## 1
Amino acid sequence: MSQILDEDQRIIEFDVRTDEMLVNMGPQHPSTHGVLRLVLRTDGEIVSEMEPHIGYLHRCAEKIGENLTARQWIPYTDRMDYLAAMNMNLGWSLTVEKLLRYQVSEKARHLRILIAELNRIASHLVGMGAYGLDLGTFSPFLYAFREREKILDLLEEVCGARLTYSYITIGGMTADLPPGWLQRCEAFLDQFEPVIREYHTLLTTNAIFVKRTANVGVLSPEMAIDYGCTGPVLRGSGIDIDLRRDGESIYTAMYDGYAFEVAVMKDGHYPRDHEYPAVPQDAVLGDCWHRFFVRMLEVVQSMDLIRQSIDRYSQCKGPLGEPLKLIEKLPKGDAYLETECPKGQMGFYVVGDGTSIPWRVRARSSAFSNLAVAPELCRGCLIADVPSVVGSLDVVMGEIDR
Amino acid sequence: MNHETFGLSTNLFAFLDWHDFFFLLFAGVACVAAVMVVLSDNVVRMALHLVLSLGATAGLFFLAGAEFVGAMQLMIYVGGTLVLLVFGVMLTAQTQLVALRTPAGDRVIAGILAAALLAVLVQAAFSIESWQKPGQGVATAPTATPLGMALVGVRVDQVAEENLVRPKSGYLLPFEIVSVHLLVVLVGAAYLARAKRRRIPRSVDLVASADSTKPRLPVTASSTLVAGGPK
Amino acid sequence: MAEFLIETAGLPAWLSWTAIAVLSAVLILNVIAGGALVFIWAERKIAARIQDRLGPTRTGGRFGWLQSLADGIKLLAKEDLMPDGADALLFRIAPYVSFCASFCAFIALPFAFDVVGQRLNVGVFFVVAVLGLEVFGVILAGYASASKWSLFGAMREAAQVVSYEVPLGMCVVVPVMLAGSMDLVTIGEKQAGWGSNWFIFHDPFTFIIFWVYYTCALASVNRAPFDLAEAESELVAGFHTEYSGLRWSFFFMAEYGSMFLVSALAAILFLGAWNGPVPVSQLLGLSDGMAANAPYALRLLGCMNLLLKATVGVLVMMWIRWTLPRLRIDQVMTTCLKYCTPIAAAMFAGVMLWQLFLPGGLVAGSFQNAAGVREGWLEQSNNQESVNEDALSDIVPSRRIVEVSR
Amino acid sequence: MTFVLCGVVSVSHYLVVGAILFTCGVVCMALKRNALGVLMGIELVLNGANINFVAFGSEYLAGDGKSVLGLDGEVMALFVILLAAAEAAVALAITLNFYNNHATVDVDRADDLHG
């Protein structure tokens, strides 16, 4: 036994050696965010190894996509990251539009940004609230959901659905905004701004929250890149990549003329003139606290983007434009496009063969790569750190299993 | 709480009297649980029976008027030592170790010897006449204060009863010795239970040291997308 | 009351004693069970208010006040499951061990001057000791459930509670030192009079140590942010993962019972026990504030006073629970060993020095100090045994200190 | 039997309880192969002794109101409890150490001298 200990650095020895235990965390567990199953090898309270088992939510979405027309597949993208279905719709629509070399109207472009960023806020609110739950505090979750409900109300007005919207489709939107919606959206933003300060008080700067997240699950920038982490997880490690700025031109063209800065922690300091809490002393770049904080920053960033898009959208004259036909034929060839979704870079791949039904459909999930780094982060941590690490990665099983 | 009804009334409750009743209850629980400690093979059940036994003993102490000792028994023994023991059981619990069986032959021999020992002790207990005289019943006066004062060196009871000019010195010295002893034990136990401690390698350190000791972690396809993706 | 029955109703002694004992037991049981019902309802309502929602609204009328009763009936009707690999005896017995410990501690808890199950000379010590037994039920439950999550919960509970008994004990010793007695009734009586007589306001050290006590009490009854044994986001439900129905509810009654108990203890030790901030009865000339011949109405008022204070303590616990995240096990231990224990020890020493140099408090004579109490005890025994006064003063060293300090 | 049941409790009754606990403890120490079981036996033995101390020290049990030991009995009992706690801590540490080295708590297998 002791020889093994000497050879393998990864096995941790501590004061009193006890029996190793294999523990199943999930698939039914309060803090695995859906049907994720984590197999923990624990030595007392210390986790020596952790292995995620996935696939409990597999629904053959990609294969189904090869039997439907491109527009018919939109509802299936809703069910991938069901917390940010608008962004999923957008990703798939843009990919197919890239294949078709189709460009939506100016008005639709601003509306897409408006809706997608609104949904990003909703998604981050869930991530934030559920992270509080993971750490054992219940109230921020409900505060987050209270605000999210308001966003869902807005989205419901737009498309009639609260979770699986299928609103953004290939070639535009299913409908234009109802009258008075923009005012209601602005009213929401105005009352939402001070609420963020509450979240900072309850979570971001809360002493216990900081103790639980600072210097826990530190993801170095190199490792983040090696494992293909994207989105807030990557930016939490201090890497300045955001596809809205650095992506393919068909995607970044959407954001042309928008002023925004990528929410990334550089030198432990976020360079904007908003009021933010200071970074706690214990926090290291790349730890759970930073990943969480990047999401909080992105909420503010999205609010800015929404305000800008509301301006531009209301300045746009002319019609929104009709979406493409349900049976629009796809040209021969393929297209791959990654977009910046709330969870990270979501990629869609489509191969057309001249019919209206795509020959191949694939999705590249950001949460999948983000989850892959969890075993590394959890090695040698305490059991209580596992929810805090997995929660900070903010994975959605619908997207991983598809 | 008078004993005059003793023997006259046929009523069971009056016949027994509460003090006796509780004595019998506690003594019964203590003895039966002690026997169960011996008989059970499972360590955790042994611990449970031991708790019952020691808890009932604390009850006996209360009945004997030694309230402080009883509470001490509950706190230190039952609340502290036994929780520690069960903790130890859990730390070392492997299924085959929880129940280590004793050979039946050993049990028989031990039973005979135990019976002999018990007989001697019981005989001794009833051998002296003055021990058998019934007491006055229920404790009324507190003993905690004189106990505390005895521990800091003042023997109130001795003063009271013998009117001594120089009292016995009390228990200040033993008290000190015990405290030092406890400290030594604390240090000793901490030292004994300590394995050779090794710094827990965090994942970050592992990656940092990965270049020299381990093959570098495989670069996934998606990471090239991130690192070398379109700008 | 037993004397009352014997004398006026003419019942035999044993019967009246038994009747009173049963009555007391039923009363205490009702305090726990009824208290648990009320507290669970209150917890729901408070949680709802904190979280910006309504909580139960339908059952039993407007405020859903029958909700916990309805839940109790539901729990009674629920199937009592036991996992296959469980140790049947231990699994069955564990909730009752917890509950009994919580219940037994109420025996020595005074609600007013002499409204107490059994007045014990070592009351404080007894309550703390018995409360420590509750952990045993939790450990047994965790072990017997044959579930790894339960086992984790049990281990955490064992480590946590045993550690927190140290600072808790130190905090409890401070009021004992001030009152010169471990008798809860005496401690309460020492704080009679104006609110400034409460031990929390005795000196700055006691003020600090009250908060240390409250923290440790929170930890020893396993409430958030120290609820590691049942940490639902980590251990599913910890030690009671496998429990259902009535047995599960016993754990909860035990939890709420001990929550109330530590709060009541805090009220007695630091917050003036059953004495209100203003000695109304004394001002009205109804009584001298001391037990013996106080009218029953006064006792009732005292009970109300104590219950109110204890309830406030419980409500604060709920408030904390719904506000703060949970600590990690190593942080819980750090809090105990690096913060609570040294602070408690320093405050203990501080109170001791304060007693020595400022024995009567800042305003001379506002307190009777512990040395005086001991003195009183000695004199009492002197009178009984009629010992020579001079001889005693020669041989009792503490007496000199007392005289100097006077 | 009538004496045991009906007589008012005296020192002897306590001594009998102590004797039973003591005997059980001794048997436990001798029989159990689990080191923790042996430890529990020791606790029982110490408790049996403690009962005797308290019984002899109690004024309420002695017939004439004068106990044999007086306050000394209770003080001794206190010291025994304290030392038992200390002993348990050390013994547990030894057991855990033994378990670390041998991966067992069977005392029969603790037969080599070097740790």
Note: Confidence is low (pLDDT under 50) at residues 1-14 of chain A.
## 2
Amino acid sequence: MEFGFTADQTRFRTRVRCRFADDRVRDALRRVRAQGVREPDTRPLYRVLGDLGLLAVGWPAEYGGGGRDPIETAIAIEELVRAGIPDTMHVNTIQIVGLFLLLAGTEEQKRAHLPAMARGEKFASVLYTEPESGSDLGSLRTTATPDGDGWRLHGEKVFSLKSDVTDLGLCAARTGPGTYDGISLFLVDLHADGVRVEPIASIADEDFHRIRLDGVRVGAGDLLGETGGGWPLLTRALAVERTGLDYTLKAERWLRAVRDGMPDPDDLFLAGLGRNAARLEASRLLSWRVLTGGPDVDEVAAAVAKLYSSELAQEVAGWAAEVYGFGYGRAWLDNERVDLLEAAYREAPGLTLSAGTSEVMLQIIGSVGLDAYLPAGKSDGGKR
Amino acid sequence: MEFGFTADQTRFRTRVRCRFADDRVRDALRRVRAQGVREPDTRPLYRVLGDLGLLAVGWPAEYGGGGRDPIETAIAIEELVRAGIPDTMHVNTIQIVGLFLLLAGTEEQKRAHLPAMARGEKFASVLYTEPESGSDLGSLRTTATPDGDGWRLHGEKVFSLKSDVTDLGLCAARTGPGTYDGISLFLVDLHADGVRVEPIASIADEDFHRIRLDGVRVGAGDLLGETGGGWPLLTRALAVERTGLDYTLKAERWLRAVRDGMPDPDDLFLAGLGRNAARLEASRLLSWRVLTGGPDVDEVAAAVAKLYSSELAQEVAGWAAEVYGFGYGRAWLDNERVDLLEAAYREAPGLTLSAGTSEVMLQIIGSVGLDAYLPAGKSDGGKR
Amino acid sequence: MNVDIDPVQQRLGQVVSARLSTAGLDEAVLRAPDAVPRGPADRNWTALRDIDAPTFDAPLEAGGVELGLSASTLIAERLGRAGVASPYLAVALAIDAAAAGEAEMLASLVAGNIAVAAAGFESVTFESAPSAAVADRLGWYVEGSLPVEPSAADAVLLPVWLDGRDDLGLILLGYDTLKWTALPAAPGGTGTAKLSGALCEPSALLCRLAPETGCAEGPLGRARVRQAAYLVGLAHGALAATVEHAERRRQFDRPLRDFSSVRFRLGQAHAEIEAARLLTARAAWLADSGRPFAVASTEVLALAAEVARDTGRLAMQVGGARSLTALLPLHRFYLRIRLEVTRFGRPDQLWTTAGRRRMTDEET
Amino acid sequence: MNVDIDPVQQRLGQVVSARLSTAGLDEAVLRAPDAVPRGPADRNWTALRDIDAPTFDAPLEAGGVELGLSASTLIAERLGRAGVASPYLAVALAIDAAAAGEAEMLASLVAGNIAVAAAGFESVTFESAPSAAVADRLGWYVEGSLPVEPSAADAVLLPVWLDGRDDLGLILLGYDTLKWTALPAAPGGTGTAKLSGALCEPSALLCRLAPETGCAEGPLGRARVRQAAYLVGLAHGALAATVEHAERRRQFDRPLRDFSSVRFRLGQAHAEIEAARLLTARAAWLADSGRPFAVASTEVLALAAEVARDTGRLAMQVGGARSLTALLPLHRFYLRIRLEVTRFGRPDQLWTTAGRRRMTDEET
């Protein structure tokens, strides 16, 4: 085991950090903040980051990426968040949909979408959840009916983030009967006819969206994998989402704000700080284990990382709401920290729900994961 | 609502306390302790208590009781435990089997058993659990097959306390097919032919027992209720067990020992003490609500009291094992407190298992109990 | 000893609940905050005044009916169940303070003429309370800076240090005298109000308290118990809405409530709420029967805060993504609980204080 | 950065596990304690000596092979999984201490000739440690009273105050010099040993440490990491036995593991164990690569202690009544965990200490 970074990796981190400190980035970030709304449009900022090669650091150069290995990729993501870049667009576009396309897309699909994503010119959303299908994705109702050499999509997707400004949806739909067998994955142009995106106001700074698909045409080339073969792909795509890195970095940001804002810590605070800091360190290691584990993500390790990091971030957000007392001690704490921590509390409930609820994670860990504790051949856990 | 005691009740408490301080009681208690074993025989002590009218305080005089109301009865039990009397025999004989006989027994059964119990001359055990039937009592396998005007019992009961010295067992057995319909309740003479009692060594000071029933004859008069009608009675008997008072009193004794032994409390200790003391107060109220709620015990309130009090006592036992550091700070803490708290830790796991596991309590609360939160007519919770 | 809620109290609770309305409440939470930190006009406060709620726990000589703290905790609990904020809680504290200090404001408060907000009570030791100084006969100069929840109140009640740091006073300032130096970034948050040189009438000082003992009994002790009841109500309301959702929402062909993991956690929440509810009732009873209740008021507030916090989080988890939206407004409880958990002191500080008292308490 | 366990370590772990035996262990726990506080002869210690375990993490010049703290945490973890106590952990600490102090005892310790028990390390500030004074050339007089777990050790390693309270020493006393003033009331407990006037050789002092800094790095810091690994192993072992039980045991016509309430809690325990395991490996790596590890050693011990405590309790609950008996000896873990959770400091004290360091730490 090796918990340190090589000299090359450390140099890479420094270089990336300097790039995030570039004037163009700082300016773009300032303009984002100057919009003065709870959910500013970050696309101009992302275009700057794309220009600087800071988005798709880990993708091959032929698709517009930086050709970096997983460790360097993770370093770049850490620095992105630490530079204060709002990361939802990065998580959805680069880390989830883009990475999944890279793993499972056709050559045409990759060429059609990845370079534009890497440049910060095209953005993507995940469209799995429906009003009646949350954790139980096998019950989804959106249909894809054959139409010439393509399909027509009908249905409703909900709780998607940023879909008012994204261009591409990774959409699960039913192409046949059955629970898991009848599901296929499509790439949907969110500007196409028949797509209607409405906001669902949220207490978090980022609103959700409802995406109504009313006979939306998708072509033969927009299918991922085989017709009806979407379920195993979906499982893989979900595991890709679950590195826990984004949650770990949120926890880090919040915990640091709590610590740095506290002028006169008492023992109870110190005990809480020590505990949360230790768990943050552990969370980081769990995430790194997934990130460096190769392209076939270990489903259980990913579930552990997602569970642990999101529960921790939620815990820190709740802790932050108490340690300073009423109103985050805003009589003396600077407004920037107050606003950060205050928003954390409103964001926190979503963390243990998005990308698979904690219950789904526990189901995965409690079935497949625990089999490792049994003497060989004693379980059928994987099937349950 | 009324959280205080009347002058009469307070006087009664004082009187009872004095009686527990009687020389005969102190002597008998000293002799129990002088046995120098982990599980001393408390029967001689109970005979003294019986003589002094301190056992069946709440039973009618005609059955050897003191005719006191539920509040006075609970006061007497509190004082019994506070006087340091080991209470397992009292809980099983007086508070569970005896009380249940009083509620559900025939006149003959009451006369046959209650007065001797009240005198401390006869003791009882509960025989429900079997090797394969713990929480799932509907799966019990012990059979009662007709034999003349009575029955013969065959089966094995486990995890019973004190059954090596008790005289009477309240036993659930199968008189017919079905899950719940085929169950009947019997009073079994534990000295009868075919009864074999073996200890099952436990880490707690009190060992468990295995009771093998090998064609044990019970007469027609030993059936409680109707043949095959044992399930509703059993449910009622279980609710009677679940006042939580015994667990509350354990938690009280342990918490007091922790507090009184701590010379230099720091803030973390004080916060823990405040929290546990508040929960203890709440636990006491939950128990009193059950005790004063009349003979038809509210199943949900009983489950809440049992759950809360046993989890609290377990929590306190675990807390006690940490606050003084390694070895209960025995370098300076007196041996009596160390031994009490050390034994508490070994007893603690059993508390959330006996008289219905915490999971069974949560099942009751989560089905019937939560219906109260629903607008009328919105649930079938009671049936699940 | 009779731990069952009595029929009169039950009826009173129902009357209160029947008058409370939550219409429009959740939509407001999801809107951008107003530029002026002033909550919407409060229909529920009007409803409570209509049934003379402020009189329930007020002295006879001031137009009250002296039903005791038990009655006002009941109202607080019902407000919590509905998930609504209300001037009622701060009014009740102001009445207690005015009664203790024999302040002339008392009658107006009991009559329900002043909608009050409370601010500055978050520290058990009042270390961050503003200070006030006498300015001849003109009244009081108040200096300090405070987190305040925007509301439709007429006045804000706050603790102030008097004469250096010898005494603690409870003072009632006009809500409009607050100078906002920061506004909430989103609904459900607080702003910062400055009181630099705020001048008020001599009569604004409702009472003086000894800082060491003043916070666990007297007006502030009673406020703790009322706040505990409010938190119990918030937990109750959150659980009720969650149970209803778990009964209705199906996944994997079963209602959520049928999964033992969900059912058990909801059941645990019920047990915790019941425990806190009884402890609150007992604390009110202690106060009403003239017994010491410093330990009880401290402990019950800390316990109720924990129960509310845990139940609020559980509700959001079981409710899923829709609980963050108007589709399932569990967030009403979640956001309110954040504010109320620390309003009269952080739970950990309360526990430490309570523990210190317990070290020498014969009753443990 | 490569967080996967490497094949050599994995193999080493398997070798250790294959040699450990738990036969007879649980029955002993259920027997009455011996009158003489002396554990049974220890087959597992013999097995570890057979594979030269004490050499793994010892300096080359003393006959060691310098595989580092990573190797000895691995052994500790495997001992934990099996649920066995072992002189190994205290021997490893004694070796570190003897190496730090260049003590002549070092070679004997590395050779595995002395079975050691550790006592007196429970306070983070060592406030209750015994004191030792020089008695000319005769050696040391040690005064004090300690909780000690009875064992089959040859020697007991303890911290002592030297020269008043200036320095902290680690001293190795003959186990037979302990004067027992109280015996454990039941197996799994501790007794009290008095050291009043215990005299020992000058060479018994293995090393001197500065009390302020000496406990989070150096020999005691390494002991914390090893102890954390042992606790992770205990949690792992408890969970493994519980999963097996939950798979086998049926209630309501289903294996226990199929109830989401059970499954989720076991799954949560796995996540917590994995987290503590990685944190332990990292702490060992920091030490082995010569980096500061004071924060890491403190935090990982506290975290592992909590994980072990919670997993041990969960195991007993899922195991049911039989877990208290020889029918399902989960109690082996439950009782051992009680002793080990506090052996090198109470978790809450460790957290406070760690938090204080974190306040000024750039790495948070």
Note: The first strand of chain D starts at residue 116 and ends at 118.
